[in-house]
Amino acid sequence: MQTPVEQIKERLSIVDVVGEYVKLERAGKAFRTRCPFHNEKTASFYVSPERGSWHCFGCHRGGDIFSFMQEIEGYDFRAALEALATRAGVTLTNVNPKEQSLKHELLRLLEEATLFYQRALLTTAEPKEYLKNRGIVAESVRRFRIGYAPREWRALFDHLKSKGFSPARIEDSGLAVRRGDSSVSLGAGHYDRFRGRIIFPIGNTEGSVIGFSGRILPGADTDTEKEAKYINTPQTALYDKSRALFGYREAKESIRHEDLAILVEGQMDVVLSHQAGVRNVVAVSGTALTTGHLGILWRLTEKLLMAFDADAAGIAAAERSIYTALEAGFDVSVATLPEGRDPADLVRELPSRWHDALQGALHVIDFYLTVLSRTVPDVRQRGRAVRERVLPLVSRLRSEIDKAHFIGKIAASLSIPEEPLWRELSRVNAPKGTGEIPLAGKISALVPDQPVKTAQSIAHDRLRGICYWQERSKRPLIEVAALTETLAEFEEGASVVSDARKEELIFEAEQMYGSVEKLDVEIKSLLQSLSEYRLRESFSRAMEDLKRAEVAGDTVAVQTALKECQRITQQLNNLQRHG
Ligand SMILES: [Zn+2]
């Protein structure tokens, strides 16, 4: 009987699973894209539908659909198995409910809480009225699963308990707070974190709810003035604010399609932007933009548009996010909003105002230059401001071409030559860190330095790759055993090749030779270059001998070495003539 893992692999195509996260392009028998696990400009991430495997030549990660889900979602194996089993319609019969992963149980609990909040909204007039006044239509309420947390101490807690969830688990989800023992007046026990608030569920990249953001209902009671306008789920096993993007699931397709992600500040902005027909919008909750957020967006696009208030405070607040995004390699543009307004305000006034603001977006450096030329009329002062504010941004640009472009622009705007700007730029502190995006959960190990490859080792690797590739092929095109044997002659001692390395070599061979007409001709030429390298090595050794013999004045040794050199030259000539 097939194991669940085998069943799942049979039912799900790796291209579909991986394709959920990244846009795959056909490359021969395989598919290719930019790696979702490390920052790169050229695609070196390959997926083979034939072998059900993936591999990245940049960061050397690879594996099957399970390891892909583990890497990209930060799951453990169990969670990856459960997620893919659900998708494949495979029942994991031997699952003891107690063994269910904590994450899985928390997901069920949060789903139950979402439904509870949604129902509470439908039956309470006040929050419904509030949303209506804010211009949010019923369809958006449904789409974003907006809810309401009743103004009671234990409404949700009691509901979840009645559904069989333990107080400890409810606490783990971040939805209940345990009252300190010292709080004698209220007694021990739990109470709901969200009370009297509009609830916006925050999903993971698969769309399951992992946390909430709750907005206080204004004018609710006297207590509210002391309370924060927004509160969010704290850090839990599922919810990590440095990776959570509100609206991601709803925006994903559109971001990919438009090749642009728009970053706004609040949940209301996301919801109303959708209503205005701009769907490639996400928001971070209760934190500045992090490399974790960027890592998720990087799977879909490398272009980021930030919309914020054009006043000084707004610009200052966005600065850190701009730096982070530039260092991560994003192309960053800025849309400025009329003073004191957020995207939600614009949509409410007139949806086309939001469209106009986006249309007028500028590359972040153009944006700064424009702001400075408006606010600092004195050219010398402006030069100083450019050095302090703009050059650090230019230094963070990944592309040298972009750097040159903007240095030229800055020079023109200040009416000075480029040269001093380049000198200033070299003095600007280089950005700290590697700029690598630490992606998907646990992965952040730096790629180990690759030893410099010689042409010889490349030819050797290619031949080994052809062997492994043909070995696994149902109808091999060559005699694998014979080639393996020939190749062994070029190896000093047996070498052990890891499975990951094998997979890499197979992908390489498949890419290079998958569509060539005559594989044997390619192999012959590779073997020939191996022989040639070997002869050249012997030749330089013989030359060394010759030099030593001459220095020592040993005429016999000189003669021997000369003959050896001639012999090798002869062989090299033969090789080239018959090649
Ligand atoms: Zn990679």
TrEMBL record:
SMART domains listed in its UniProt record: TOPRIM, ZnF_CHCC
Entry cofactors: Zn(2+)
Transmembrane segments annotated in the record for this chain: none
Comment on bound cofactor: Binds 1 zinc ion per monomer.
EC number(s) stated in the UniProt entry for this protein: 2.7.7.101
Pfam families given in the database record: DNAG_N, Toprim_2, Zn_ribbon_DnaG
Keywords: Coiled coil, DNA replication, DNA-binding, DNA-directed RNA polymerase, Magnesium, Metal-binding, Nucleotidyltransferase, Primosome, Transcription, Transferase, Zinc, Zinc-finger
Coiled-coil portions: 516-578
Domain of life: Bacteria
Zinc finger regions, CHC2-type: 35-59
Any GO molecular function: zinc ion binding
Catalytic activity from the UniProt record: ssDNA + n NTP = ssDNA/pppN(pN)n-1 hybrid + (n-1) diphosphate
Residue intervals of the Toprim domain: 259-340
GO cellular component terms, semicolon-separated: cytoplasm; DNA-directed RNA polymerase complex; primosome complex
Annotated family: Belongs to the DnaG primase family.
HAMAP family: DNA_primase_DnaG
Purpose of the protein: RNA polymerase that catalyzes the synthesis of short RNA molecules used as primers for DNA polymerase during DNA replication.
Quaternary context: Monomer. Interacts with DnaB.
PANTHER family: DNA PRIMASE
UniProt note: domains: Contains an N-terminal zinc-binding domain, a central core domain that contains the primase activity, and a C-terminal DnaB-binding domain.
Protein name: DNA primase
Protein's organism: Candidatus Vogelbacteria bacterium RIFOXYD1_FULL_51_18
